[in-house]
Protein 1
Amino acid sequence: MAFLSFFWAEPKYQITAGIITLISLVVVLILSESFNNLSIGKILTLSNEVKKKEEEKTTVKTENKELRQELFKIVSNIQQSQVNNTFNAPSDEWLKALNVVKSEDESEDDTEEDQDEIKKASQFLAEREKNRGRSRERMQTRRRAEDVALHKYFSHSSTPQSELIQNVEFSNSFDEIDPIMSRKIKFDGYLKTISNERFIEIIPNYMTHRSYQDYLYVMLNKIHCYREAKGISADLLLIILDIEEVDEDSKRPDRTANLFEYFQPAIANKLLKVEHFTISQQEIKDFETHGQQSLL
């Protein structure tokens, strides 16, 4: 229309207000397609919400799809539950037969099995108590053998046994001397003479295994630190006992061979002295009877 008015209307080639208005409307329509919002003052406002509507439509479709899936799961679970209840429901005859009845007498096989179990349990308890008794007896024998060994040692020593102090350890101030370990070490005995201080350790020959050798090393290190700090002569007397067992089944192997080999430097440096005593069961019995008089 603007084209025809410009070229064919009279007068020709004249831009009128109508042409300007038409061209302005066309421009506004074109611009409204390019922008979401177009405003010309307070006269004209155009909004393009197509994109927003598409996004809302997509969101609604997604939610509908999720709702349909959840609804399908619920319906499937209900149907499956109904099927299970249909097949698993007990019959009326079975429910009538379900009852409580008196148990039958135990069979002979069950009775014999119970008796065997009781017999095995009794044997186990008896064997355990027997082993405990052997352990207590062995410990008591070891203590008596230690007393016999001390009596034997002092019977050939110039120092009377009355000078012996049993069950000793270093004082707390020793922690400042030992730069390595603050562990407390207990000794079976201690003798102090004018020229020497002697610590005593007594152990059966079957206990001189590798772990005890580590413990013996710690003892010797403590005595070495003590000797160096005080500038005196001090050593460890290790008394190894070969205790006669009551029967051959109780006899255990001698493990002292490696001990002498490993601690030769300590023996050569007069830090360790080893005495070996064989103690018989008769000596232990005699000492129990006459021990106190023998010590006088």
Note: The chain has nine helices and seven strands.
Protein 2
Amino acid sequence: MDILELPVTSEGSRYVLVIEDYFSKFVNLYALLDQTAHSVAQCLFEDYILLHGIPETVHSDQGRQFEAEIIQRLCTLLDIDKTRTAPYNPKSDGMVERFNRTLIDQLAKSLLSCGGEWDNYLKQVAFAYNTTVHASTGYTPYYLIHGREARVPVDVLVPKQAVPSDLPLSHADFVSAMRDRLEVAFANTRQNAAVAHEKQKLYHDTSTRHQPYLTGDLVWLHNPREDRKKLAPHWRGPFKVLAVLDSEGVTGHVYRIGDLLSDGAPSQVVHYDRLKPYTLGLIPVPSSGVRRCPTLDASSRLGDEVTEVMEAGSSGTVSRAGRAVRPPGWFKNFVSYY
């Protein structure tokens, strides 16, 4: 489950609530005027749950609308296991994030060829996606949900095939035949999904060098908020690894870390991709309680060396070309002393 923001339409629609089933890949799209927790909860219950039933698990990012009390209360009342991604790690919800890109592409093509506004084509794009064979499952999402293929507009143009003579004559026979078809389809879907998963994992691991951290290691933490600021520090730290968490039976991907520079800061749960080893050494804690970075000592020595060069440079040095090299007098105003 995810929220996608698009340009505001004349009807006031600005957001799309995307809900996709992980097994069948069946997607549901709902246009929203706002992304408040109340609007999301109302749409989730009235438009999705009342049509498809109560899901066992709902997975989303850590957006405020998904972590609000009303969503937590709804999941508690309906016995829904609410899970969430790690902060600033969209790959934890990669299936929906990948569909968002498909949705934007298809809406852009529809608007270019037919005009209008995006909320007029939302249901059509969802229907086209659900009636297309998915590469990971080998079936259309519509078939895995309804047990039959949808009748699409092309069926109107193509002559209808003859009705099979072995159709079930009673409701019980129909249910039994559909159950048999779905059992075969579900088994093939699981097998195809496992093969697709291994292929995607192979592509991902070719450019990944995973070296898990241990409890007590010092790490840098990437700060995505500063990515757009060219001169801002993109890494913060050092942080200490407090615990290695278990994510679906796999360890070494999610960690709980604590900030060494702030005693009162709460611990954070972050993904491995946002961390890198801290290589500057330990940070000493003076008796005054003020933490100093060891690089300041090196900077102090560097400042002393620059001062000595400036003081000894009054007589100047001789370069290879035989010219006297002296630092400018105004350079003294720009030397930092520690």
Note: The radius of gyration is 30 Å.
Protein 3
Amino acid sequence: MGLNGLTEGQVMQTPILTDQNTTGPPFRSIVWLFNLNNIVLYTPAGSLVSPAYRKRISLNTTSGWLDLWDLTVGDSGAYTVDITTHTDQQLNGSTGLNVYERVSSVSVTPNTTELLEFNSSVRISCHVSTGTSLSYLWMNGSSEITVSSDRVQVGDGGTSLTILNVTRYDRGPYTCNVSNPVSNDVGRPLTLTIGYGPERLAIIGPSLVEFGEVTVLYCSAMSVPPPSYTWSLNGVHTTVQGPVYVIASVNSSDYGKYTCTAVNTLTDLSQAADHVVSLKVKLCYFRWFTCSIILNNIIMQIHFTHIRLIIRRIKKYLCSFFSAGFQNFNG
């Protein structure tokens, strides 16, 4: 005796009678019940099938087996059978049947998408279109979220994941794995956007430049979402916007203090950084001496190698001249 013909479900236990009449005379009667409601009543004179089970069952009158197909979740429950043998012996048995609906279309959704580091909390819900007797498993990347903490909590029977006071390291991706004994499905990963910054703002570029050369300054910051950038030169706002400031051909008006300001519209925070650009100018170059001046630093290096040599020669000549004159005068 058993239950067969499963299309979507699983029999957790097969009903077994201790005595099955597979070769003897037909049974006098067979009665199958579902939750104490009649499924089929058999006697040698004929069978009486409940309307809900017509075209869904098949009864083996020799063994007592009942085949049931086109299962639905409503077929889950307790099944019992009572048999009267040709010798009027009473046989009975019972079993439980669990029918599961397959899991499908799992999705995860946050209750908010505007999250600020240390100032926001988020509740992520796991939804399914179909499925019964469900189990939920949350994953952060490749790690299972199995134990709730002060900040991370799994609730509502496993259908929700709550993260309190989010940090930038809570971005995920998060997935929800839903399963039952006959199927499983995983929703698309959810990556959270957690706003922070700008911070660690810096300007990268040369500090010494020459006339006419192309110079590029690059402003960078750690920020989510990416910040907007503005530039000023010596305290005066420029029309340049964006992380890159390009000087196509350096001239005397391009030296000074460049200030880059980054603004995060989500966190409503800003940060500024300065970078000084000095003009390296070659004023002169001669055979007898060289002179180089670096503006702003006011460093002058003058080399008088040849001039000092000439002075020494003139001094030697004058000394010789006056010495000879004194000797003539004394004579």
Note: The two ends are 157 Å apart (CA to CA).
